[in-house]
Amino acid sequence: MSAIHPIGKQIDAVESTAQQLLLVAPPGCGKTEVIAMRAHHLVTQGTIREGRRLLAITYSKRARDNMARRIQQSLGHERTRGSVTVQNFHGLSARIVRAHGRTLGIPEDVLLPSKRWFSDTVSPLTSDWDARGEAETLLRKLKSQPIDDDELLELVVASRNQIAFKVEEARRLQNKLDYPDLLRHAQRLLHVPQIANLYQQHFDALLVDEFQDLSQQQLDIVSLAAPRNAMYVGDPLQGIYSWAGAEPATVEAELVARCAERVDLDISYRSSPEVLAVVNAVARPLGAVELSAADPDAWDPSGHAYAFSFDTDVEEAAGIVRVARRLVRKYPTESIGVITRSRYRRGQVDIAMSAAADIPVQTWDMSLDTPGLLTTLKSAARGIKTSKPLTEQLQLLFERAAAVIGDDDVETINELTDAISILREKAVEGESIRDALARFREVHVTDAIAPGVHLLNAHIGKGQQFDWVVVLGLEEGSIPAFQAKTAEEIAEEERVLMVMLSRAKRGLIITKSARTTNKYGLRVQRESRWWSTVAGATETVATATENLVRGT
Ligand SMILES: Nc1ncnc2c1ncn2[C@@H]1O[C@H](COP(=O)(O)OP(=O)(O)OP(=O)(O)O)[C@@H](O)[C@H]1O
Q: Residues in domain UvrD-like helicase ATP-binding (predicted)?
């Protein structure tokens, strides 16, 4: 792989000597690449002193792995291991709590968070989803400040939310931390000057990727742990995690006030002009800068953007399979991402793709990226009697695998929890646990995206790119998702659409269906409010392409 060098305004960001630097980069402008190049610059220019480290941090596990891979490519394995710590917030917080928790009376044997804990604890208390949501939101909000368990309990009591109170009581009895507790305690510990000082001595510089996904608490944690030579990189218009606690507006305002220097990128190194025309059409009303292609002529005539309307999602799925087959044959080294807002809308495509034996397909929500987890799961599944009720089989599988992994390894336990819930869905659809397990794949983050088709949803696709992207299901209820009600939630859906479209390098295919399948039959759908904007920015479809897609 040839080395990548910064170009244009990227150079300003890579070489900046500012102590606090803000880099705003729309999709494909090289955000992650600039982080890797700046890591290289800081380490090789001696900003990171002998024995000290650079902290590179981001929100999600996948974004963290993506960043780690690019930094390793840029800096080499040895130097990365010697000088760079790449983590996500839960990882850093778990490390701080484990190392220093005793200082604030947090028991050494406190149980670290696990994904199912909240839902397992709240389920016996109420079956009302709104009440559960309210309790969860309240607890997350109260825990987003550096208070101790007693102060927290007082606030919960004052709120008069019985469910939140019982959940909190159970947590204390079980000597357990939930995710918001991990961040709360890490923040409390970093407010102890001696502890903060240890981290400040350790980290000579900071790189934050995806600042738009951060909460104020997470910003406080990194600012205390690594205040010097900080670069915050992100794109407010790709903020799609406010449902999980991100506070894009307040975090951006805080960073704008804090950073003396700011760099804005507007050249896409990813996408063809045809793809960018669609991305710009959706991003414009959101107040985004117009993106232009770094080398527009290089794409001529290979860039494409098309829109297709179908009568049903079954016809749509058949059309997508025909296009994918043609692309796989014509461009055997290229990747095709088939992206939906939510997994359920992909049902017909999943069925049609699994029947197309000649197309290499990877389903991302059936992939595991912790090395060895798949083997652990398969051996744990051995001997579990299929005559037992499904819940018991899955519970046993979880317990056996979790015993091998160990409670400390929060990230792997999380991945295990996800895998178990996918197995549950597949089993409900009639597939045996063993057959579903056989379809899981191990994906290593160091691998480049393989040629062939990749089936994924919007949130998993963030930060990724494919030669071709099919975005399907542009109907109301799918995108925007039916859950989105307020103006703010709808704006977040528009950003989700922008994130999906901007994964494409060379070509984009966008589809909608007039009717989609559910368990009662076909249901009439209204086209998405953004369909005409998106379709209006695509090219006229040539007859040959139309015939290919329609199978005529
Ligand atoms: N200076 C450069 N020279 C060559 N290629 C570059 C350069 N900068 C970025 N690229 C390429 O452009 C593409 C997009 O870069 P990158 O993934 O870093 O963008 P991003 O801003 O993180 O995107 P997103 O926010 O959409 O995830 C990648 O293929 C990357 O290798």
A: 4-272
